[in-house]
Specification:
- 2 copies of one chain form a homodimer.
- Chain A is of the alpha/beta class.
- Helices cover 39% and strands 18% of the residues of chain A.
- In chain A, the strands form 4 sheets. In chain A, strands 5-15-14-13-12-11-7-6 form an 8-stranded parallel sheet. Chain A has a 4-stranded antiparallel sheet with strand order 1-2-3-4. In chain A, strands 8-9-10 form a 3-stranded antiparallel sheet.
- In chain A, helix 8 links the parallel strand 12 and strand 13.
- In chain A, helix 10 runs antiparallel to helix 15 and helix 13 crosses helix 14.
- At the A-B interface, helix 13 and helix 14 of A face helix 13 and helix 14 of B.
């Protein structure tokens, strides 16, 4: 097994000439590719708050909480990194409040890694009345209608205040469908904003509030846009890499396009991203899809699907999806998923889970969320294991067929 | 320390002449008084599913779930006995469903003790259109308006099917205020129903569905009524004891009367209950009150207050009640209760709990409920400890002043 270590200190043109540093010099995240199988890779991402084995699925904790689950449970499930939403936290409880309380880690009492998005996606998805200019975006709060403004600089300021381990450049999430000129203009805007994001971050990254637990500091990742146009995706990737980031995300997908288009864009874009940097595909997907994207060489993913579906009684199992509200489960003594070793499947019956859901008991959401998250995390562990063994798509496809939901 | 062991096999006139049996002969619960301090006692109640240290506070799991808490958490908090509501479970998911799934223990995967109420209280409190006859009560479901009938026999049948360790005689909860003739008539009805409850139970107690985990079987407790009339309470106690039960509850309190009246009735009624049987005061109270009632010689209590208050952001602490929604806690880094060692106070700040509540996060309910239940359980452990040390009201009043909320 060949092991590659690159530091994640952002530099221009880094992809073409990775440099080896002593660990003393490492200033943000560190990423090691430990095994490969085809395009897929198993790696280890080190942040100021610990190590993250990749490929990784990041549960979404929008308001500094994965809905219904105490942080103790997330730790027990083996969650190594959480995602939190800058837009939501900016509105409530506010960045300054979180900053004063030690950043997100102190605020929510989570000792492991955190990633925040830039707020860009929510500004676009939750605001019909937004106004975009070169300077930034004016938008209204979905809570009280109050007016707010995000620029690359203010989005960085917010994310530095929140103090996550990995923060994201402020981007415009191009709508789908869009005319070619519109997609290009949007991509150009995102590239200018990426540069401004990086400039602001480099000047202010020493202001992170969380207690120092290591010599590392926050890392700022860039985001590739370009709509559903392969050429623009390539150009966006190349020019974002030119700006230079310790990790790269693929944004602007899962916005309504057919799934085969998503796959096509991911597969093509990954090839233009540096092999030695973590690759983060934002906002995907089903268990089937996260296996497929890991197989294409994606290292990090996040999605509200497992947690949101759990709240609606939709459960992922090795035997397919189960809508637990159905009457057929009322007398079913078997575990939710006989192949699952999560705390829920080890202890409770389908009949009990169905009763809780049908009776609107809050415990339904708690138990369902624990199971769905376990299923995603176990799926990713299986994928990672198969890559670590050097097994490629053949073994992955077996995992996949297990997760074919 | 003198230890008294009486078996709990129900017999007539048992109070006047307790008999010692070999443990081999024990058929239902066993109750040991291990220490006394004034009227208060510390004891040990053994059920088919384990031991319960008394005085005990029983969390309410209305629909076979303590709202928001996985059974694992209840175990970790040291809960030894839960209460579940027959009325609610009868309507949803239905007694037959629970019976087929192994009774409540199997259904909800709870290996420790369970007590069910008779359904009487809910029939009276949730049904304005109920019709009471000598035979029983016709009532409408609060869920869909469908018509149902509970008699002493059918309430016993339901509770045998649910399979709790301790079940309650079917009683009429007398309304407050009520005319003297009405209170007497209601008490007489409860006494006739107690006899019918016992008769049905004795004929059918071998039908309990749960897997046998010991040689013990269910125990049926009687309920003392009599409104706010001390003479009727005495008469109800004496005639209920004459029927003979392994434990006695005081019902018909916390129905709107002033708290000093509740206390007066409890103190007077306790003196007419056999010292060697567990005494259960139904539906109380605040932390202050549960200490006081334990001090009066009550062994078992239940109340929705800690769990319901938690859902409304009302938290009990050693420094008084806290309404966590208040803005003053938004930046408060201190734990909810600096004297509490519960998992919530050890990990989270008031600021985070306030944020979760203000943001309508489900985790607010989960964490608040864990704290409030811990506070109640810890209060009872402190009370029990002081009794075990032979300390009476003096030490108890210290505990009480700690819990003066």
């Amino acid at each position: 097994m060949t092991m590659h270590i690159w530091t994640a200190s952002p530099r221009a043109n880094e992809a073409s000439a990775p440099t080896w540093f002593d660990t003393i010099l490492i200033v943000s995240t560190q990423f090691l590719v430990e095994a490969r199988a085809g395009a897929a890779r198993a790696g280890r991402l080190t942040t100021p708050h610990g190590e993250v084995e990749t490929p990784v699925f990041m549960p979404v904790g929008t308001l500094a909480s994965v809905k219904g689950l105490p942080q103790e449970v997330l730790e027990e499930l083996g969650v190594e990194i959480l995602l939190a939403n800058t837009y939501h936290l900016y509105l409530r409880p506010g960045v300054e409040q979180v900053r004063k309380l030690g950043g997100l880690h102190g605020f929510m009492s989570w000792p492991r890694s955190i990633l925040t998005d830039s707020g860009g996606f929510q500004v676009f998805s939750l605001n019909d009345l937004r106004k975009v200019s070169q300077e930034g975006v004016t938008f209204r709060s979905h809570l009280d209608g109050s007016s707010h403004f995000f620029s690359p600089e203010s989005a960085m300021e917010a994310q530095i205040g929140l103090g996550a381990d990995i923060i994201m450049a402020f981007d415009e999430c191009t709508e789908y469908p869009a005319e070619p000129e519109r997609v290009r203009a949007s991509m150009e805007l995102t590239l200018r904003w990426a540069e401004r994001s990086k400039n602001y971050f480099e000047e202010h990254k020493n202001e992170v509030p969380c207690n120092k637990v290591s010599d590392r500091t926050q890392a700022l990742f860039g985001i590739v846009q370009g709509g559903m146009d392969l050429a623009l995706r390539k150009e966006s990737a190349e020019r974002t890499i030119e700006i230079g980031f310790p990790g790269y995300a693929i944004g602007g997908l899962s916005v309504g396009e057919p799934r085969h288009v998503t796959r096509e864009i991911v597969e093509a874009t990954v090839q233009h991203l540096p092999a030695e940097r973590p690759r983060y595909l934002m906002g995907v997907g089903t268990p089937e899809e996260i296996v497929e994207y890991a197989n294409l060489g994606i290292d990090m993913m996040d999605c509200v699907l497992p947690t949101r579906a759990a709240r609606h009684g939709l459960l992922f199992t090795s035997e397919g999806r189960i809508s637990i509200k159905q009457a057929q489960y009322a007398g079913d003594e078997s575990p939710l998923d006989p192949n699952c070793v999560c705390p829920i499947c080890r202890r409770y019956s389908r009949a009990y889970l169905r009763h809780l859901y049908a009776s609107n008991e809050v415990l339904a959401q708690v138990l369902n969320t624990i199971h769905n998250l376990s299923f995603y995390l176990d799926t990713m562990r299986a994928v990672r294991h198969s890559i670590s063994l050097g097994r490629g798509a053949r073994f992955l496809s077996e995992v996949w067929s297990r997760a074919k939901l």
